[in-house]
Design a protein that fits this description.
Largest sheet: 3 strands, antiparallel
Pfam family, one: 7tm_1
Subcellular location: Membrane
CATH class: Mainly Alpha
GO molecular function: G protein-coupled receptor activity
Helix content: 55-70%
Low-confidence stretches: 174-189, 291-297
CATH architecture: Up-down Bundle
Shape: elongated
Number of strands: 7
Strand order of the largest sheet: 2-1-3
Number of domains: 1
Protein name: G-protein coupled receptors family 1 profile domain-containing protein
Keywords: G-protein coupled receptor, Membrane, Receptor, Transducer, Transmembrane, Transmembrane helix
Distance between the termini: 24 Å
CATH superfamily: Rhodopsin 7-helix transmembrane proteins
Radius of gyration: 29 Å
CATH topology: Rhopdopsin 7-helix transmembrane proteins
Length: about 300
């Protein structure tokens, strides 16, 4: 929703930016902001599953509805600052006959990265927005899988068995029951464990999609930054930009589809949300009664 209008303007004007003050800066900031927020939200979802499975009694109580709202707000605020840092380094520029890039007046150039004194901007962004998130997600998955395997292997079921004996000393005979406990290992995982594994499969799928779609994006930035003029003469290099941009859109498109296909609770909440927005029900008093959406989405 944010990136497509900017791309349409770029295609319509043949890559020339319109004569709007701060157009290049705001465009890059907005796209980077939503990209960084998506990455941090994937990390937050993985961290929540880690806490729910590995620390169900000590830390699970922290994840209240209010805490989740605060975490989402913090993610958007935190991702805004690196986005502004990247966005302010995009200006309207043009290339002269010697191949040198110069700042031009509004409406006569295209948006391009000009950079500041720091020469390793893309390397730092690669580390912060790709390498570290992937490392954190992999660490969480290893911990989660170990915990689930441990829960499955050590789970036992206690079956009470009654041993009936008669008491003949009393006038009226009574029957005493001595209960014994038989410990039997359960063959299959419990339903809660199956549900947890479904969630883990969903998060793993989302993380794999994120890895496949965003790795070419970072590689393309590094290639263009270090190859300079030679990249403009290579067909493969020129194709990298539209391909990596398309992969970003594919990642954003696939995420809600994956949620709907793999999560029953997400489908249920989504249907209730649509019903609440478009199909309000009328009560006897004439007021509108909307469908209630469960909080534990």
């Amino acid at each position: 929703m944010v990136g497509v209008p900017f791309d349409l303007v770029s295609l319509w004007r043949e890559s020339k930016a319109p004569a709007i003050i701060g157009y290049c800066e705001s465009t890059s900031t907005a796209i980077s902001w939503f990209t960084f927020s998506s990455i941090l939200i994937i990390m937050a979802l993985t961290a929540e599953r880690l806490v729910a499975i590995c620390y169900p009694f000590s830390l699970k109580s922290w994840f209240t509805k209010k805490t989740v709202i605060y975490v989402i707000i913090a993610i958007w605020v935190l991702s805004f600052f690196p986005s502004v840092y990247i966005g302010l380094q995009f200006k309207q520029v043009a290339t002269d006959f010697c191949g040198k890039i110069h700042l031009v007046e509004l409406g006569y150039g295209s948006c391009d990265f000009v950079g500041w004194n720091f020469a390793y901007t893309f390397e730092v962004m690669l580390l912060l927005t790709f390498v570290l998130p992937i490392a954190f997600i992999l660490y969480c998955y290893v911990r989660i899988l170990k915990t689930l395997n441990l829960m499955t292997s050590t789970q036992t079921v206690h079956h009470p068995v009654a041993n009936q004996t008669s008491d003949s000393s009393a006038t009226t005979p009574t029957i005493k029951q001595n209960f014994l406990q038989i410990h039997q290992r359960q063959c299959g995982p419990a339903m809660s464990e199956k549900a947890q594994k479904v969630v883990i499969k969903m998060l793993v799928t989302i993380s794999v999609v994120f890895f496949i779609c965003y790795l070419p994006y970072h590689v393309e930035r590094l290639i263009v930054w270090y190859s300079n003029e030679s990249c403009e003469q290579s067909i493969i290099c020129l194709l990298l930009y539209p391909i990596t941009g398309l992969l970003q859109y594919i990642s954003a498109t696939l995420n809600p589809i994956i949620y709907n296909l793999m999560s029953y609770r997400f489908r249920t909440a989504f249907r209730l949300l649509l019903k609440r927005l478009f199909l309000p029900t009328r009560t006897k008093g004439g007021t509108t009664d909307h469908a209630t959406i469960p909080l534990h989405l």
